[in-house]
Amino acid sequence: MNTEQKVAVITGASQGIGAALVKAYRDRNYRVVAVSRSIQPSDDDGVVTVSGDIADRKTAERAMIEGVTRFGRIDTLVNNAGIFIAKPFTEYTQDDYETYLGTNIAGFFHMTQLAIAEMEKQGSGHVVQISTSLVDNPIAGVPSVLASLTKGGLNSATRSLAIEYAKRGIRVNAIALGNIKTPMHPVETHAQLAAMHPNGRMGEISDIIDAILYLESANFVTGEILHVDGGQSAGH
Questions:
Q1: Taking the mean position of all CA atoms in its chain, how far away is CA 151?
Q2: Most exposed of 136, 175, 178, 229 (fewest Cβ within 10 Å)?
Q3: Can you give the residue ranges of every domain in the chain?
Q4: Confidence at residue 81, expressed as pLDDT on a 0 to 100 scale
Q5: Residues 6 or more apart from 176 whose CB is under 8 A from it?
Q6: What is the pLDDT of residues 82-136, one digit of tens each?
Q7: Listed residue (64, 82, 84) closest to 13, CA to CA
Q8: What is the pLDDT of residues 128-182, one digit of tens each?
């Protein structure tokens, strides 16, 4: 087992941004633990898949065990899995609320706590959260209270963890997204979503990959909430 080759754990890895991240990290010669509820086994010896709900701590435990047992270390965690349910505040159900907390908060907690415990053993590591620009810049007509509640919490946790672990060689950052062309957005909504950005277009998955890979190599950057949102955070 070659324990010198770096290892990334990526949640929400079966499609969209997560699947693209698996490829991007493999292209950088990382080995990858790919986590998702619906993920299938990989033919790539450098990728191990873990199927499960990240709201369940056992999924995080299996992911870390697989990474350490198969590859010998954990260097990066990308907390990509997340949900967005656009409803007026008074129409959210208890199930909506619990689903948000399970995926966006509990999933982050379990995965990050166990990953950082492994990173501490080697004195280095990097954690990245996927957040949203709606936290700082709500948009009329886009009801997003539960997204702001949970992703805003991740932004605060990102800064707090960055300070707590700065002297232990572990960096923590987040990417705050605008509207990105992923399977979550039907094609017929793209024109309307593009118009929400000052630069007049939706983001591409490649825009997000570029930003995460920048943070991966930016060793002097920690505690950063990097907005990749076509200018939404600057104004309207």
A1: 11
A2: 136
A3: 7-229
A4: 95
A5: 131, 132, 133, 135, 136, 155, 225, 226, 227, 228, 229, 233
A6: 999 989 999 999 999 999 999 999 999 999 999 999 999 999 999 999 999 999 9
A7: 82
A8: 999 999 999 888 888 889 999 999 999 999 999 999 999 999 999 999 998 888 8
